[in-house]
Amino acid sequence: MKSLVQKIRNGLSRTRSSLVDGIGKAITGRVRLDEDLLEIIEERLIAADMGVNTAMAVIDVLREKLDHRDRDDPSAVFDVIKDDLLQRLQRVNGAATQPEASEKPYVIMVVGVNGVGKTTTIGKLAHLYKMEGKSVILGAADTFRAAAQEQLAIWAERAQVALVRNKPGADPASVAFDTVSAAQSRGADVVLIDTAGRLHTRSNLMEELKKIRRVIERKQPGAPHEVLLVLDATTGQNGLAQAKQFHEAVQVTGIVLTKLDGTAKGGIVFAIQEELQLPVLFVGVGEQIDDLQPFDPETYVEALFA
Amino acid sequence: MLQELTEKFEGVFRKLKGHGKITEKHVSETLRDIRRVLLEADVNYKVVKQFVAAVQEKAVGADVIRSVTPAQQIIKIVHDELAALMGGSETPIRMANIPPTIIMAVGLQGSGKTTFCGKLANKLKKQSKHPLLVGADLQRPAAVEQLRVLGDQIGVAVYSDLNARPVDVCKQGFKLAREHGHDVIILDTAGRLHVDDALMDELFEIKETLKPHEILFVADGMTGQDAVNAALAFQERLDFTGVVLTKMDGDARGGAALSIKAVTQRPIKFIGVGEKLDALENFHPDRMASRILGMGDIVSLVEKAQETIDQEKARKLEKKLRRAEFTLEDFYEQIQQVKKMGPLSQLIGMMPGMGGKALKNIEVDDRALVRIEAIINSMTPEERRRPQIINGSRRMRIARGSGTSVQDVNRLLKQYFAMQKMFKQLNKKGLWNKLQLPL
Question: How many CB atoms lie within 10 A of CB A10?
Fold first, then answer.
């Protein structure tokens, strides 16, 4: 298993090079931090999907913090941006989900729009907890998408954990209910509930999601202990709308940022943290079962600028 | 779809419209707002830069500031540029002269390739084609199973072989298609990151072996700035022939559509607009531009007027108006011109701010026009040229002839004389040169 930093770095290397090269190129041949340069830096931040608001806020901080003396020093520019981004990420403190021994079973519900990698993330999470010696049960509550349950079954097999499933088209809430009760009677440590991908604008489907949550809650007071929103790193500014809607419907507790091994940057998490105070808990950096890592703001920002 | 972007644009333009006179400052402020709107819509920043520059250049060239309707001018420029960026006309699927037509779907993970393949097969089947779905995604767990379930739902055959190489599955699928008389083969390939060279090689091999007639790059409509990188990487390696945008039924602003089109110059052929298997629409570039703007309404109104109003006649009319020689004949001519543009209710719906809610409370009476037309029709040519000769008995005759009342005739004549008086005053005060008719 590659080290955490290594993996994220590999994943982010292209991000890093585009950001650093861009800013570096902009600075080469210039000594002063002038408006043109600020605009170039702003563009680079926007290119990372951070959004206009965040980018402008970072620029404002940069402008404010750099007095005339510093403006002649390119490395100071980097340091200020880096510190600022890190601060933004650390404003919301979130540690990777650690199932409490006292909460048994520890129920984690996984939600998100279509195609972000919910099922894959659950497979990886199952593996992670299994490796920690915990007993895990998966609930295939995506009864809508064709072969979603088969996909989860394959992951269950890979991670060697149990799976509760029902017929396609069955009520997803009933699958969630069955999963939690199976976990209770078997004394399992962790329950992972997969849900069908849905666009956050579909109010009827969001109602269905609320129902799944309610049913879990009723079966086990205090559950679900975590509601993870899976977010594709390639998602643009719509990610904020997604986070808002899912948060409103099922009280999201954290974000899993997937597909960070491409060229996408996932910069929208800055806006999500700013607005909803939702921490990023995990990052997905590949297709293998161990390609899920706890999110570490320092590594993330460090990898962006290393 | 794209509602949010539309709303944002409306906001920008509303600000602009509040000003009777527009200064250069307004123009540059508007451009800054437009830049922001596009960036927030996930249009790639480089594309935005080009776009704003193009609009600026045109805006300066078109003398927006001095024109009477600067807001409309800028809107039109933005719309035209947007439409140009989106590409010309609708592009259908290219069908092979000798079947089977081979269509290959490629794209990143989770972009919706498998669902798209199912939807496309469904669409083709409805067009009396006989498609075969080939599951060449042997990478993602249960991807082939997903394709099989979709195939079952729409009654389309599915072929795959989990123990073969993807390229061999495709070859075998081709063979089967010929044997069984399938006229279209749809290849569902594994999703991959564009940085994954091994998997890109696999796709390239399929392309080289099967020589598909269409390679469609399936992209998530919610993608951000990275859309451009992925699209370019796939284009470089596979030189795809068209683009499919999925998940366009959400509230994503669809900037990816603009970006991908702009950098690859490949047409967008379909958009996915829902979870059901019939939720696949052909892509209409012009409509999309209009939808993004939300001001498409006024743009098409302006265009409609440009198309239908006879410029020559308009010039003649202007001359007459200047000399206050405007007759009922000219008035009649005007009505004909307006009628050519479509029903009044539709025209009013095109006016900015009149769409939707505002229109609910207004009843537009197309028959009012018909009545006026009938009245003028019942006049003699002499009466139309010199309405002042229309006395009481003529009025009664006209009313009878047109099936209206004398009051209706009187009202029309009163309006006509009021107009004439207004034009005379305009001439006297030399206001003509300040008031350019938007004809």
Answer: 16
